[in-house]
Amino acid sequence: MQIEIRGVEKLSLRERQVVALKEMGYSNERVARRLGLSASTVATLFNRARNKGYQVVIVLPGDALNLFGPDDEEEQEK
Question: Which GO BP terms, alphabetically (predicted)?
Answer without folding.
Answer: DNA-templated transcription initiation
